[in-house]
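Quick one, probably user error.
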């Protein structure tokens, strides 16, 4: 087939997804930086504060179902525009809260729903629709935005909290989310899928009519059909538990480090350390899936690195030990963002990736929502995070074994353009 001389638009989608994921997850993963200063100012327990993160994740997960369905029908630009606007105002208003209820409404409700439009369902599914042969590489590069955003925004938030206050930090995150989100949505994320523009995935030209290509590219699968597929539940359980671990770490790691005598800036920077190797990991694991017969093996190897990191964390009582843990755990954590949508596309097909990934993200979010509140509950009752880290170790052993049982099965939709 003849190749396009112009840059394939799929790479613009990758760039846009990189930036949107950066501002979204970079801002969301700053939550742990605000936990302790808010607790000190308001005399709220960590369970009360962590509940906002749990509400946020639950609503993010519910929103992902609708986002996934919409993404199989409309361009991502409008989903991202709406999400960036709502999330930005949620962050800004959180900077003015004085009660738990207000905190739950602004950060839990507004930011939770808004970030669903900026999340991996929107971005990774959009990228996945434009690539087949290079899907792992493309999603891996886009996923690197998650770590890039965390590397950039967590030290910034930590600096603002340390030298100014936590309220200004949240307002700053809101302004960044609004500005970058709107610009990227309206410039880079305005196209749906390659068939609608006379192209095949990966940049090959196509000669079939637009009407035929659209008929092949849009395929609806009933939710009940997905729920009857045992592969879906294997993915939902394993990835939900993986994100339970992830969110418990991101929300409570900074407070854990400070409890062990690490300075505020160094503790906040440990999140950036996770993201540094996560940045490399997201590229590596995405690249690796293109070279393996089954992407589940990338997920399994990544979970093993996370497990090693958690074992290191339970004994991390100094800055150096904290960074060794963060670098190890971060490399494994980098496997989650690229491998999940790749596994979903590999098992179910590219045409229904938005719908399947949206449903998966709901269950992933349910697992993720448990992590913050579980950590707060354990700390409030035992005065330590040790039992939380032990639970995480057990969970990671479990999912590393279970993911290996995942079968291939059939894909949904026209097989010729999967």
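Nope, works fine. Designed sequence:
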């Amino acid at each position: 087939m003849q190749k396009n001389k112009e840059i394939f638009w799929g790479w613009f989608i990758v760039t846009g997804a990189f930036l949107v994921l950066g501002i979204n997850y970079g801002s969301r993963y700053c939550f742990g930086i605000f936990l302790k200063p808010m607790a000190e100012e308001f005399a709220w327990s960590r369970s009360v504060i962590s509940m906002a993160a749990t509400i946020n994740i639950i609503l993010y997960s519910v929103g992902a179902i609708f986002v996934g369905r919409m993404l199989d029908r409309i361009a991502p630009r409008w989903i991202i525009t709406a999400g960036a606007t709502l999330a930005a105002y949620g962050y800004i208003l959180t900077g003015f809260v004085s009660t738990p209820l207000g905190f739950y409404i602004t950060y839990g409700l507004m930011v939770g729903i808004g970030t669903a439009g900026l999340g991996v369902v929107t971005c990774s599914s959009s990228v996945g629709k434009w690539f087949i042969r290079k899907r792992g590489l493309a999603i891996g590069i886009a996923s690197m935005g998650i770590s890039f955003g965390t590397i950039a925004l967590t030290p910034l938030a930590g600096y603002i909290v340390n030298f100014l206050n936590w309220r200004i930090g949240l307002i700053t995150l809101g302004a960044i989310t609004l500005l970058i989100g709107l610009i990227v949505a309206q410039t880079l994320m305005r196209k749906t899928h390659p068939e609608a523009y006379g192209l095949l995935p990966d940049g090959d030209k196509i000669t079939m009519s637009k009407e035929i290509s659209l008929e092949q590219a849009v395929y609806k699968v009933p939710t009940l059909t997905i729920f009857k597929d045992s592969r879906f539940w294997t993915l939902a359980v394993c990835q939900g538990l993986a994100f339970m671990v992830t969110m418990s770490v991101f929300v409570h790691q900074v407070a854990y480090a400070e409890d062990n005598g690490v300075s505020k800036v160094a503790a906040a920077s440990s999140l950036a350390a996770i993201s540094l190797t996560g940045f490399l990991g997201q590229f590596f694991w995405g690249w690796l899936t293109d070279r393996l017969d089954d992407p589940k093996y990338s997920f399994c190897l990544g979970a093993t690195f996370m497990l090693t990191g958690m074992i290191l964390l339970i004994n991390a009582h100094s800055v150096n030990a904290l960074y060794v843990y963060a670098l190890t755990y971060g490399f494994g954590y980098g496997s989650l963002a690229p491998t999940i949508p790749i596994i979903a596309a590999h098992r179910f097909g590219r045409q229904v990736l938005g719908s399947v990934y949206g449903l998966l993200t709901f269950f992933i979010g349910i697992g993720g929502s448990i992590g913050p509140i579980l950590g707060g509950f354990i700390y409030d009752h035992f005065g330590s995070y040790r039992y939380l880290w032990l639970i995480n170790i057990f969970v990671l052993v479990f999912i590393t074994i279970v993911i290996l049982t995942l079968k291939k099965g059939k894909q949904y939709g026209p097989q010729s353009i999967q």
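The radius of gyration is 20 Å.
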